[in-house]
Design the sequence.
């Protein structure tokens, strides 16, 4: 169809036909050719385009400017159905509405479309109206189109910025809040679970301060990319602002799986970053809450995740925490422990255990790493890992560090002359005024050979004033002490300070080769490269955290000089070190079949255990992944089964495997999992949906026990106890 015919049309079908009731006839001053030329100019300008279709809805005319704009031959467009050439922007519902308009032969306007074969390249606002012959026969549609591509793109970008973070491309705070709200509303009706993870970057401010805000922005972009790779399941990831992120994980309540995800996120985010301004390392803390266990509404669940994040940061950073109703009490308890540190140092409640470092070639102990433990009057022994998390957040970290060096030198003074003592030096202690003088004083007071003292510092010390760091390292070197770079590969510009710092050895942590035995892993190749680098610089290498015999063999093959880890032995007290060194040397032979009992934590708190629908109050003395020790019941036979109520909806089925008077050793049917901060928890908890179906209101789990939950496991008022309480047992006094 020609433009001339399109314009003229039938009696009432011309595109510009008009019905004017006027006393005088309207006279046009332009010829038909002039009109055509003017309309052709209009088409080519992009201000207006024309189209027409036949009665079957196939295109019979289309402005050539459209075909030229999208570089598609006109012959490929004409004769095609209108709804096949144009895709309505906004989804299938709008497409159906266009089809309905055409089918109903009704006029339409303002329909935004793009060409189906090249979506988004050209956006047109389409209008049209049906055309009828003088006899009333339907002949098709004729209409106009306007190019609104730039306007549409601006609107799309505005809409995107309203939902997504402009720096990282992740969902922004508003979108995350809306997504969580709508998801939880739908999930409550469907009785589905949903986990919320709150993330906060550790040491991010230092990057901004030392490398600049441009580096900080690039770092955030790289963090966003790593987060997408770290979570290998359906999720929504958002940046709430600054260095705070949020992840929504639908249909998951397994705290074991969530802990693995959080651990993977922390591990990936703590790997070094390469920026134009330099190389840097940050950390991450994660708080986890699960709906409906930890909150029913979006506001409640986000608040719970925030509290868990706060607890993770207070616990020493670089860890994850699950929300529990006891977090507020735990924060108070941790503050009490920190307060008790003053008394611990004064009353000599602290003591050292030593983890051997062995020569790779002859498996002989060449050094001992001093680790601080705490004999707490109420809690019993607090091991070195838990103690470290307490002291890291304490103002006494420098005092404890100085005590450690002095105590280690005192105890090791009479041990064999070739045996070195390694002490980890926190960054706060290294940077404190008088640090070098305090080390010198200890060496003088204890008459300890400086060459036997090995001070371990990690790469974070290099974030401080460069002149001060160099001066401190040089002064320590002059004292004659040995220096070890701890946690190599997790800090700033490693090669730069390896070149200038007087280190005797490099220590590689287990996070560096955690996946070394996985197929296609390149971590062992990196270890070999580090060994070669250290050898070229005249430094020894130490691999720590080795737990498996297979990994031990691989590290030996890489040329590592010294080895350390539980595959040899756990940390031992000074008395045991002296026994092992009684003949002057200490050799440890690891075996591939070495097994270790699950690590037990001293707990001392009241819990409920359930047997035959009767609930007993007992004392939980210690806890491990695989079992627990309880006290308070008599005449409990081996093989008896209990449901152990650990509080907060945590129920664990356990069997009595050891019995001695009023003390029973229990083995869990399903092992517990880490809570991310040195504690243990069950994978699953009592579902609030089950409680609601039994008549209780749908609400977050309470912190207490579940012995009397309605419709649940038991009703102690109707049951007869099988076991008696031990004489003089008063759990309420704990």
Sequence:
């Amino acid at each position: 169809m020609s433009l001339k015919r399109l314009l003229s049309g039938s009696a009432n079908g011309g595109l510009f036909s008009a019905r004017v009731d006027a006393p005088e006839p309207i006279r046009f001053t332009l010829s038909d050719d002039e009109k055509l030329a003017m309309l052709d100019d209009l088409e080519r300008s992009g201000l207006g385009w024309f189209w027409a279709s036949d009665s079957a809805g196939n295109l019979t005319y289309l402005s050539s400017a459209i075909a030229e704009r999208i570089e598609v031959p006109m012959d490929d467009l004409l004769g095609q159905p209108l709804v096949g050439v144009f895709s309505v922007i906004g989804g299938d519902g709008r497409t159906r509405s266009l089809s309905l308009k055409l089918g109903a032969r009704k006029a339409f306007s303002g329909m935004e479309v793009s060409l189906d074969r090249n979506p988004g390249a050209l956006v047109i606002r389409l209008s049209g109206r049906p055309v009828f012959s003088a006899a009333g026969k339907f002949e098709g549609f004729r209409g106009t189109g306007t190019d609104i591509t730039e306007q549409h793109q601006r609107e799309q970008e505005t809409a995107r910025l309203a939902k997504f973070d402009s720096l990282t491309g992740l969902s922004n705070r508003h979108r995350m809040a809306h997504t969580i709200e709508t998801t939880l509303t739908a999930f409550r009706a469907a009785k589905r679970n949903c986990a919320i993870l709150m993330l906060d970057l550790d040491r991010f401010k230092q990057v901004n301060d030392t490398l600049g805000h441009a580096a900080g922005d690039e770092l955030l972009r790289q963090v966003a990319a790593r987060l997408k790779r770290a979570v290998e399941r359906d999720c929504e990831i958002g940046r709430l602002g600054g260095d705070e992120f949020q992840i929504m994980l639908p249909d998951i309540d397994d705290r074991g799986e969530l802990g693995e995800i959080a651990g993977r996120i922390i591990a990936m985010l703590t790997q070094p970053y390469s920026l134009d301004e330099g190389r840097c390392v940050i950390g991450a803390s994660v708080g986890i809450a699960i709906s409906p266990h930890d909150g029913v509404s979006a506001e409640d669940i986000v608040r719970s995740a925030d509290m868990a994040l706060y607890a993770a940061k207070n616990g020493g950073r670089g860890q994850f925490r699950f929300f529990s109703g006891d977090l507020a009490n735990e924060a108070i308890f941790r503050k009490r422990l920190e307060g008790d540190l003053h008394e611990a140092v004064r009353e000599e409640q602290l003591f050292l255990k030593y983890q051997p470092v062995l020569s790779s070639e002859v498996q002989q102990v060449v050094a001992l790493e001093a680790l601080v433990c705490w004999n707490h009057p109420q809690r019993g022994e607090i091991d070195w890992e838990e103690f470290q998390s307490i002291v890291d957040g304490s103002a006494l970290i420098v005092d404890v560090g100085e005590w450690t060096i002095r105590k280690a030198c005192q105890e090791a003074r009479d041990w064999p002359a070739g045996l070195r003592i390694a002490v980890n030096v926190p960054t706060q202690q290294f940077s404190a005024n008088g640090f070098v003088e305090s080390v010198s004083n200890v060496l003088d007071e204890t008459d300890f050979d400086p060459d036997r003292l090995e001070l371990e510092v990690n790469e974070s010390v290099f974030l401080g004033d460069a002149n001060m760091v160099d001066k401190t390292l040089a002064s320590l070197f002059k004292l004659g002490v040995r220096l070890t770079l701890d946690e190599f590969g997790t800090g700033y510009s490693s090669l730069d300070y390896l070149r200038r710092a007087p280190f005797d050895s490099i220590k590689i942590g287990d996070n560096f080769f955690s996946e070394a035995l996985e197929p296609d892993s390149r971590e062992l190749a990196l270890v070999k490269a580090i060994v070669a680098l250290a050898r070229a610089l005249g430094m020894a290498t130490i691999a720590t955290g080795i737990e498996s015999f297979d990994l031990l063999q691989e590290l030996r093959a890489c040329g590592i000089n010294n080895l350390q880890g539980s595959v040899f032995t756990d940390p031992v007290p000074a008395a045991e070190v002296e026994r092992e060194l009684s003949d002057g040397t200490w050799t440890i032979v690891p075996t591939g079949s070495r097994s270790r009992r699950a690590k037990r934590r001293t707990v001392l708190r009241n819990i409920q255990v359930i047997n035959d629908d009767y609930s007993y109050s007992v004392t939980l003395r210690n806890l491990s992944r695989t079992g627990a020790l309880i006290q308070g019941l008599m005449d409990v036979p081996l093989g008896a089964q209990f449901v152990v109520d650990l509080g907060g909806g945590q129920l664990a089925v356990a069997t009595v495997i050891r019995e001695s008077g009023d003390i029973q050793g229990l083995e869990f049917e399903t092992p517990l999992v880490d809570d991310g901060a040195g504690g243990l928890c069950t994978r699953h908890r009592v579902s609030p949906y089950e409680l609601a179906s039994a008549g209780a209101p749908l609400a977050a789990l309470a912190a207490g026990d579940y012995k009397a939950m309605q419709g649940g496991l038991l009703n102690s008022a109707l049951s007869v106890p099988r076991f008696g309480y031990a004489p003089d047992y008063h759990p309420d006094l704990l």
The chain has four domains: 3-154, 164-325, 344-580, 601-733. The radius of gyration is 37 Å. The longest strand covers residues 365-376. The chain has 22 helices and 33 strands.
